[in-house]
Amino acid sequence: MATPQSEKDKKNTSGPTCKIWLSLFLSLFVLFASVFLALKAQSFYFNTIQKQQTEQLANAIERLLSTQYTLPCRQLSKQPTVIENASHQSLPDNRHILELLQTTKDILSVSIVYVMDNEGTVTASSKTSSGKGLTGENYKFRPYFSDAIKGRESRYAAVGVTTNERGLYFSAPIFGTAGAPVGVVVIKSGIQQIQVELSESSFQHAALISDSGIVFVVSETDKDWLYHASLPLSPAQKATLVKSRQFADNPLTDLPISFDENTTSIDSVPYTIHTTPVALNGWKLVSLEKQQKKFPVILLILIPGSLLSYLFISKIRANNNEKLLKEEMEEEILQRRSVQEQLLIAKEAAEAANIAKSDFLANISHEIRTPMNGIMGMTTQVLNSILTEEQRKQLEIVDSSAQRLLGLINSILDFSKIEAGKMEIEEVPFVLDEKLDEVFSMMAVKAEKQKVILSLESRDSIPPVLIGDPDRLLQIFINLVNNALKFTEQGSVKILVQCNKSDSDSVLLQFGVQDTGIGIPLEKQGVIFDSFAQADSSTTRKYGGTGLGLSISSQLVKLLGGEIWLESEEGKGATFWFTAYFKLPNIGSEALVSAQDTVEKNGIRWRSILSNREILLVEDEPINMILAKAVLEKEHIHITTAQNGLEAVDHYMSRAFDCILMDIQMPEMDGYQTTAVIRSHEQEYGGHIPIIAMTAHATQGDRQKCLAAGMDDYVTKPLHTEDIFNAIEKQLQNSLSIAADATDGVRKA
């Protein structure tokens, strides 16, 4: 029987015991709850990281597809050569379309580029790696054709019917002159870059799957997944896919794992799956990441210390926070390095594209200037003959159009040189009044036709002789005055010149071109100096022009150390102002300008030098040869022709000539090689024959290259009569001077 004391002792001991067990229970509860929440938080954290990284990878693929392929495809569809080919206005696989497609393929590093007509037949194609094209093949059953021929751009991934290679097809509609699609241009890229992106990602497994779940691109470790169905397919769906041949003849068997769940298991290892869409008609990017181990042994280690766990919770949290912060900092550093590497890659790609563009423009310049030489030269020859009034008007229109086209070509080349930083500014003495007279001479006819008064207002304080780049100053004036005349139907255009600041060595001049034309709205004035900009799109149709003139003028003014701005009110005309720094010459420089002026004025006197001279004309283009020969023979010059460098050397070795006109690009032996052979012969046997380069290449670098090769002068195509005569006269006069000096030396000896 229990005594009262024993009951009391039991109560006294049961109280602390209950508290201990309660504390233990609470501690265990907190511990297990903490472990449970920690595991959940861990799972949530890694799932979030996986989601973010998957979306970042998808965005990287999207940027690759958009910037590297979609935009070039869109631009290619607007090329006149492509439009003519698709609408059968030119022959299939003609030289021009093949050069354009092959150049595009090489620059973009894609598999193939081709053009289809509105029936889906390939009319022109670049070559594949095997050297074959697709011309004559019909792919109207392909979605990239059926979508694009309806007027919308398309992206499509499939195995090539002809090449049997995986690729991404980017297509864009080709719109004809009536505004309706006349064909489709297609760029097919390989999947290598996407495969590299997947392989270099942080995921254990990654795949690009179609909207039906077919695995199309995987990382290097998962090649056995290719062409397997990662989502359940019904027999009807599978039959439709096989019939479409989107994935060639592959059986499309089921993948051992499915991507329609959040988790899966590979070789008994659990993985978390995350899927995100990509901009490819319902396609998706799938990433698989190993699930983090929950480490059950941690529970066994922590249970004995459950009673003390609450003492260490704060420290554990602090340690975890510190570790997490360190990981985040390391990840941020890695991300910054990745961004820097991507920026470097983008910079190198941009520089490579810029070099390719410059080379492309140089080649295009040569190809255009060669036929332009024939057009303009022959037109001038016919205009100098006896014509009816109607014939003369028609030929004057041809000549005016050719001059306008040549001006446009020069503007594009100038813009390209400025953009590439290759525009060079000279510093030579010149007379400002003479340059202003040139402006008036060049623009007077146009002003008179429009019945617009062209005048000059200049202050007396302007120095007569300056040192700078007269040609670039003249180019700025021509652009601004031409722009003023274009938008001034009546009234006047005035050139203004004043001195803003001067000292003993330099002067800052302010120039203006003021018109009474249509003016420029205030909201458009901020973009008027941008490339290809017009104050109103309607002015392009009414007044013409590319919008390059003002942009080029703005860049040239900056190169001259000045600024350009405008003052205008819509309907009340506009004034374009610009400043430029010039050095002031010493007495010797002024004497040089005077001497040069004397030579120019006496140029006509040297014409007598040309008569009965023997000149060797080296030119591979028949039209250019006929033109140059006709122009020169009018001055009673005896012409001997050669179609390539080998013939030129034979003629040079067999007889004496007073001068050689040398084309640069020729078969068998070009102009540089021919000049080298002649100069080598002269070094051994003596003598020096003047060699004048004739080329359609129009850059300063080309001129320097010709002079460095041993040529004496340089004229550009289209050839102008005055330019070629002045060049010949100059070289013949130099030869006479050298001969006279040699004679004087002999007499003195």
Automatic annotation (TrEMBL):
Its main location: membrane. It catalyses: ATP + protein L-histidine = ADP + protein N-phospho-L-histidine. Residues 363-584 form the Histidine kinase domain. Residues 614-732 form the Response regulatory domain. It comes from the Bacteria. Keywords: ATP-binding, Cell membrane, Kinase, Membrane, Nucleotide-binding, Phosphoprotein, Transferase, Transmembrane, Transmembrane helix, Two-component regulatory system. It is a multi-pass membrane protein. GO terms for cellular component: plasma membrane. The keyword Lyase does not apply. Its EC number is 2.7.13.3. InterPro entries: CheY-like_superfamily (IPR011006), dCache_1 (IPR033479), HATPase_C_sf (IPR036890), HATPase_dom (IPR003594), His_kinase_dom (IPR005467), HisK_dim/P_dom (IPR003661), HisK_dim/P_sf (IPR036097), Sensor-like_sf (IPR029151). One of its GO terms (molecular function) is phosphorelay sensor kinase activity. The modification 4-aspartylphosphate is found at residue 663. It is found in: Cell membrane. The chain crosses the membrane at residues 20-39. At low DSF concentrations, interacts with RpfF. This is Sensory/regulatory protein RpfC. It comes from Desulfocapsa sulfexigens (strain DSM 10523 / SB164P1).
